[in-house]
Amino acid sequence: MLAEGGAALAAGLLRAGLVDRLAWFHAPAIIGGDGRPALDALPLELLSAMPRYRRTALALPGADLFSEYETASEMGTA
């Protein structure tokens, strides 16, 4: 399923362990704290508890950078 909601939905799906693939577009610009967050807080007590992904694709669509990631379990290395 493709979920393109907002920071709260993205964080909720990650917290629930329901994200097996990420598709991320990066613009060649920096907004800083004035920008809208892509992700709400993930209350992690340890860094080892953060969701981890492996990059599986990179592309340059125009001036942006597109990167795609999969969980380690999707790649057979859980």
From TrEMBL:
Please state the span of the N-terminal signal peptide per the UniProt entry. Answer: none
Classification from the root reads: Bacteria, Pseudomonadati, Pseudomonadota, Alphaproteobacteria, Acetobacterales
Q: Name one GO molecular function term.
A: 5-amino-6-(5-phosphoribosylamino)uracil reductase activity
UniProt superkingdom = Bacteria
Q: GO biological process: what's one of them?
A: riboflavin biosynthetic process
The record's listing under Pfam families reads:
RibD_C (PF01872)
Matching Gene3D superfamilies: Dihydrofolate Reductase, subunit A
Q: What is this protein called?
A: Bacterial bifunctional deaminase-reductase C-terminal domain-containing protein
Q: Where is the Bacterial bifunctional deaminase-reductase C-terminal domain?
A: 2-43
